[in-house]
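Readers of this paper often ask what the protein records in our data store actually look like. Such a record has a labelled line for the sequence and another for the backbone structure tokens. The tokens are whole numbers drawn from a learned vocabulary of local backbone shapes. We quote a single record here, exactly as it is kept in our systems:
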Amino acid sequence: MTDLSFTDPRVLRAIELIWREAALLDAKDYRTWEAMYADDAKYVIPIDPDTDDFDASLNMVNDDKRMRGLRVQRMMQGYSQSAVAAARTVRIVSRFTVDEASDASVTIRSAQILNAFKRQTFTTIGAEMVHVVRFGETTADDQIALKVVRLVDSEDAVSASGYLL
């Protein structure tokens, strides 16, 4: 394995993609966000903070391509609770650590703090995240192959968020 420091261009490329994803979600640019994912990618928000077997566990979200598309459609239609008066959000993604890197992909962990404002109420959500970023020919071709969002309070009652994490 090569140097996994933040001077590694593969690591920086993955971090830039993760930050771009956060900016798209805050801008509610859901179609562009959806296009960031590989066709075989998973987007998961597990309830069990320790599970890695998402298909055999209870999850808040366990989306493949089809389910991500349906989720984006709901967010954009304006007919669902999640789309009506959608929250304004700002998220900070930081504390990056690299699990592994190759010429094809990087697995990177981070922490996210999301602040949301909806109906005169502020909500703060903390999460540990894992992204597997798969590299394309250029940075424009890079895609998310896996995103796991482990909410700090995942085992508690979580209300409908009205935004993507």
Q: What stands out?
A: The radius of gyration is 16 Å.
